[in-house]
Specification:
single chain; alpha/beta; seven-stranded mixed β-sheet; 6 helices; about 35% helix
Length: about 210
């Protein structure tokens, strides 16, 4: 059984679109879990109005929301997960594509055409060489919950799965259509790039 995790922080302008994209791909609302990551706007109210599950999570940060969602699915007896970011960056066509392909692969990772930050490309280069994942930072992922890392702790949810075991499975890096949007919810490019590099260095040191 498939459960969908939608991490969301202050997404009142996007959450309805994201939920609609998911239900249009024939996912039942009862299997959609919006992880309300401390939103100060009407994200929660709109999501509840759409008839999906909403889980409040007070620990701020994208990785906290993703980890909470994946562990929630696991505890509820789901076998498969789909992560779709709540900012509507992932186009509806890519949501449909991943649902159509999921029976052919154990894990599917969304792959953006060209991540805009150099630090993202550095991070992706490492994860491609190490694990075969071309875009670890893309907000679209599908897979089996048995690889969920219950002790995940790194920013951007780069360790939400036990990637060391990924070579046992059939994976696919799926080209993903991205909707254009202004600005970034993560902060300035310099701030995000700095955090990405620090996160990667910390990950590398602790993995030794």
């Amino acid at each position: 059984m498939l459960g969908v995790v939608v991490p969301a922080f202050n997404e009142e302008n996007n959450i309805y679109k994201v939920i609609n994209n998911i239900t249009s791909a024939k996912v039942l609302k009862e299997n959609i879990f919006v992880i309300n990551n401390g939103s100060k706007d009407k994200t929660k109210e709109i999501a509840l109005g759409c008839g999906v599950n909403v889980i409040d999570h007070i620990d701020s940060g994208y990785h906290h929301a993703v980890n909470r969602g994946l562990n929630e699915l696991k505890n509820r007896g789901y076998e498969e997960f789909l992560i779709i970011d709540g900012d509507n960056e992932i186009d509806s066509s890519s949501v449909r594509n991943i649902m159509n392909l999921k029976n052919k692969y154990d894990f599917i990772f969304g792959k953006r055409n060209s991540p805009k930050r150099l630090a993202e490309r550095v991070l992706n280069f490492f994860f491609l060489k190490k694990y075969g994942v071309k875009d670890i930072l893309c907000g679209l992922k599908y897979g089996n919950l048995e690889l969920v890392n219950t002790e995940a702790k790194y920013d951007y949810a780069i360790d939400c799965l036990n990637l060391d075991k990924l070579n046992r499975y059939k994976i696919f890096n799926m080209d993903t259509k991205i909707n254009l949007r202004s600005g970034s919810r993560l902060g300035s490019n310099l701030y995000v790039s700095y955090n990405l590099i620090i996160t990667l260095l910390t990950y590398l040191i602790e993995k030794k």
